[in-house]
Amino acid sequence: MPNLRQQVSRHDPQAIQAFMQQIAAHSDASFIVIGDRQGVHLFHSVHPEWVGTRLVGGDNQAVLEGKSITTIRKGGLGVSLRSKTPIVDDAGRVIGIVSVGYLTSYLDSITLTKVINIFIAAVLLLIALFIFSWYFTRSIKKQIFRSSRGKLACWFASKRR
Question: Of 8, 100, 128, 149, which sees the most CB atoms within 10 A?
Protein backbone atom coordinates (compact mmCIF):
# COMPACT_ATOMS: atom_id res chain seq x y z
CA MET A 1 0.00 0.00 0.00
CA PRO A 2 2.19 2.81 -1.25
CA ASN A 3 -0.23 5.51 -0.06
CA LEU A 4 -0.06 4.29 3.53
CA ARG A 5 3.73 4.09 3.44
CA GLN A 6 3.97 7.66 2.18
CA GLN A 7 1.48 8.91 4.77
CA VAL A 8 3.31 7.17 7.62
CA SER A 9 6.70 8.45 6.45
CA ARG A 10 5.23 12.01 6.34
CA HIS A 11 3.66 11.39 9.77
CA ASP A 12 0.26 12.60 8.47
CA PRO A 13 -2.50 11.31 10.81
CA GLN A 14 -5.31 13.09 8.90
CA ALA A 15 -4.37 11.45 5.58
CA ILE A 16 -3.90 8.09 7.32
CA GLN A 17 -7.32 8.49 8.97
CA ALA A 18 -9.03 9.22 5.63
CA PHE A 19 -7.29 6.29 3.92
CA MET A 20 -7.75 3.74 6.72
CA GLN A 21 -11.42 4.55 7.45
CA GLN A 22 -12.36 2.94 4.11
CA ILE A 23 -10.42 -0.21 4.94
CA ALA A 24 -11.71 -0.41 8.52
CA ALA A 25 -15.31 -0.04 7.29
CA HIS A 26 -14.96 -3.25 5.24
CA SER A 27 -13.15 -5.25 7.91
CA ASP A 28 -14.65 -7.47 10.61
CA ALA A 29 -11.58 -6.98 12.80
CA SER A 30 -12.19 -5.58 16.27
CA PHE A 31 -9.54 -2.94 15.61
CA ILE A 32 -6.94 -1.74 13.16
CA VAL A 33 -4.10 0.39 14.49
CA ILE A 34 -1.29 2.22 12.72
CA GLY A 35 1.67 3.34 14.79
CA ASP A 36 4.93 5.10 14.05
CA ARG A 37 8.44 3.88 14.80
CA GLN A 38 8.31 5.48 18.27
CA GLY A 39 5.17 3.51 19.19
CA VAL A 40 2.72 6.41 18.89
CA HIS A 41 -0.79 5.97 17.45
CA LEU A 42 -1.25 7.46 13.98
CA PHE A 43 -4.63 5.75 13.51
CA HIS A 44 -7.05 3.77 15.65
CA SER A 45 -10.22 2.38 14.08
CA VAL A 46 -12.22 2.35 17.33
CA HIS A 47 -10.81 5.32 19.25
CA PRO A 48 -9.61 8.07 16.90
CA GLU A 49 -8.99 10.24 19.97
CA TRP A 50 -6.06 7.96 20.85
CA VAL A 51 -4.03 9.34 17.92
CA GLY A 52 -0.87 10.80 19.44
CA THR A 53 -0.87 8.48 22.47
CA ARG A 54 1.44 5.49 23.06
CA LEU A 55 0.64 2.02 21.73
CA VAL A 56 -0.27 -0.43 24.52
CA GLY A 57 0.74 -4.09 24.82
CA GLY A 58 4.52 -4.10 24.88
CA ASP A 59 4.98 -6.37 21.87
CA ASN A 60 6.32 -3.90 19.31
CA GLN A 61 10.07 -4.55 19.54
CA ALA A 62 10.09 -7.58 17.22
CA VAL A 63 7.97 -5.66 14.69
CA LEU A 64 10.36 -2.69 14.82
CA GLU A 65 13.12 -5.20 14.01
CA GLY A 66 11.24 -6.12 10.83
CA LYS A 67 9.38 -9.26 11.94
CA SER A 68 5.65 -9.95 11.67
CA ILE A 69 4.15 -11.36 14.86
CA THR A 70 0.88 -12.72 16.20
CA THR A 71 0.25 -12.45 19.93
CA ILE A 72 -2.46 -12.54 22.54
CA ARG A 73 -2.06 -9.46 24.70
CA LYS A 74 -4.02 -6.98 26.74
CA GLY A 75 -4.26 -3.69 24.90
CA GLY A 76 -6.34 -0.57 25.22
CA LEU A 77 -9.58 -2.38 24.32
CA GLY A 78 -8.91 -5.53 26.34
CA VAL A 79 -7.37 -8.93 25.64
CA SER A 80 -7.06 -9.60 21.94
CA LEU A 81 -5.51 -11.88 19.36
CA ARG A 82 -3.58 -9.55 17.10
CA SER A 83 -1.13 -9.62 14.28
CA LYS A 84 1.43 -6.91 13.77
CA THR A 85 3.62 -6.26 10.80
CA PRO A 86 6.14 -3.55 10.02
CA ILE A 87 5.57 -0.74 7.55
CA VAL A 88 8.77 -0.26 5.56
CA ASP A 89 9.88 2.59 3.33
CA ASP A 90 11.40 2.22 -0.14
CA ALA A 91 14.83 1.70 1.40
CA GLY A 92 13.54 -1.18 3.55
CA ARG A 93 13.69 0.73 6.85
CA VAL A 94 10.89 0.15 9.35
CA ILE A 95 8.88 3.37 9.63
CA GLY A 96 5.78 2.12 11.42
CA ILE A 97 3.54 -0.69 12.60
CA VAL A 98 0.19 -2.06 11.45
CA SER A 99 -1.78 -4.02 14.04
CA VAL A 100 -5.03 -5.85 13.27
CA GLY A 101 -6.79 -7.68 16.05
CA TYR A 102 -9.85 -9.46 17.34
CA LEU A 103 -10.97 -9.14 20.93
CA THR A 104 -11.06 -12.54 22.63
CA SER A 105 -14.63 -11.83 23.74
CA TYR A 106 -15.59 -11.53 20.04
CA LEU A 107 -13.75 -14.76 19.20
CA ASP A 108 -15.48 -16.52 22.12
CA SER A 109 -18.90 -15.45 20.84
CA ILE A 110 -18.06 -16.76 17.35
CA THR A 111 -16.88 -20.06 18.86
CA LEU A 112 -20.01 -20.38 21.01
CA THR A 113 -22.22 -19.72 17.98
CA LYS A 114 -20.42 -22.44 15.99
CA VAL A 115 -20.72 -24.93 18.87
CA ILE A 116 -24.45 -24.24 19.20
CA ASN A 117 -24.93 -24.68 15.44
CA ILE A 118 -23.03 -27.98 15.47
CA PHE A 119 -25.05 -29.21 18.48
CA ILE A 120 -28.36 -28.35 16.77
CA ALA A 121 -27.24 -30.10 13.57
CA ALA A 122 -26.21 -33.21 15.55
CA VAL A 123 -29.56 -33.35 17.38
CA LEU A 124 -31.47 -32.97 14.10
CA LEU A 125 -29.34 -35.70 12.55
CA LEU A 126 -30.05 -38.06 15.46
CA ILE A 127 -33.78 -37.38 15.19
CA ALA A 128 -33.67 -38.04 11.43
CA LEU A 129 -31.74 -41.29 11.98
CA PHE A 130 -34.22 -42.42 14.63
CA ILE A 131 -37.18 -41.74 12.32
CA PHE A 132 -35.47 -43.47 9.39
CA SER A 133 -34.58 -46.56 11.44
CA TRP A 134 -38.12 -46.73 12.87
CA TYR A 135 -39.64 -46.65 9.36
CA PHE A 136 -37.07 -49.15 8.09
CA THR A 137 -37.73 -51.71 10.85
CA ARG A 138 -41.47 -51.22 10.43
CA SER A 139 -41.13 -51.91 6.71
CA ILE A 140 -39.10 -55.08 7.33
CA LYS A 141 -41.68 -56.34 9.85
CA LYS A 142 -44.50 -55.76 7.36
CA GLN A 143 -42.66 -57.68 4.65
CA ILE A 144 -42.03 -60.60 6.98
CA PHE A 145 -45.60 -60.79 8.25
CA ARG A 146 -47.06 -60.44 4.73
CA SER A 147 -45.43 -63.68 3.72
CA SER A 148 -47.82 -66.54 3.84
CA ARG A 149 -47.78 -68.58 6.99
CA GLY A 150 -47.00 -71.63 4.98
CA LYS A 151 -43.80 -70.14 3.64
CA LEU A 152 -42.79 -69.15 7.13
CA ALA A 153 -43.57 -72.62 8.45
CA CYS A 154 -41.42 -74.20 5.69
CA TRP A 155 -38.65 -71.78 6.32
CA PHE A 156 -38.64 -72.46 10.08
CA ALA A 157 -38.86 -76.18 9.47
CA SER A 158 -35.84 -76.10 7.16
CA LYS A 159 -33.85 -74.18 9.74
CA ARG A 160 -34.57 -76.73 12.47
CA ARG A 161 -33.09 -79.59 10.54
Answer: 8
